[in-house]
Amino acid sequence: MSLPLNDPKRFKRFYATSQRIRELNEARERFSHPHIDFPKWALEGIQWRGDERILDIGCGYGAYYERLIERHPDIQYFGIDLSEGMLRQHPAYETGRLAFGEATQLPFANETFDVVMANNMLYHIPDVEAAIREVKRVIKPDGVMMAATHSIQTMPELRMLIRRAIIILTRANPSSVRPPMTVSDLFSLETGTRFLSRYFYGVCRFEIPTTLVFHNENDFLGYLDNLRDLLELYLPPDVTWEGVQEVLREQVAQFIHQLGDMQVSRLAGVLIATNRGGFLRDFMRVRAESDQS
Length: 293
Hints:
It is built from 12 helices and 8 strands. It has helices spanning about 10-15, 20-30, 40-45, 65-70, 85-90, 130-140, 155-170, 190-195, 215-225, 230, 240-260, 280-290; strands at about 30-35, 55, 75-80, 100, 115-120, 140-150, 200-215, 260-275. Helix 4 (about 65-70) links the parallel strand 2 (about 55) and strand 3 (about 75-80). The longest helix has 19 residues, at about 240-260. It starts with 7 loop residues before the first helix and ends with a helix.
């Protein structure tokens, strides 16, 4: 059997420092068409005043912090993460507003924050709903939650290539081999909407499609290697990562020879949830006025 998709040992290794995630983000920027600054795009889903008190759960090395400070220097930013290595590389490390801790046990009082961000991290938490309950606890009544993630439909070409490689390499019945899940499927744009709608009155989904374009197999395999700790979890016990790489090298080389490049479709986005703030504010006001008339 394959390991759990949120295997804590691999999770800890992948996020021990910012190097792996920076390399992955840089590779995405390099090969993506069109080129999108995703954190900047995602933050546009919130209606900002500019003086909000913000909590960034799973803040990492501060990718969203830098975009926020550029646009809104008067915000009050707080971050929390389970990787001390990541926190030490965060530009706000010396401010005293970063904490080491769990998303399911936030060290903050009730109704503290205007905005709580949980970007590309909820799928790593075994009890997602416990984390969402904590977010709801620390968020103000008219506050907003933001959660970036991927669609379960993202990278279908890559999933099918890996499935074909597994069929070639495994002794198992080919009909039992399914396209691989990725860890983000555990809290995707689709499943995340359902999770959040249990705790918030309104959930708004924004998504942005891009395409990864590779002109040689080495670039493709280099990009794939950044995802090894996440994708390798799916492999059956009689299939090695090195074996998959060799099969993919041959398959991708054939694609590029025939078509000129290898394209992989990505679909990522952000979920914005609130009880009466943000995009719901005007709706709630109009509804209240209507009820009074």
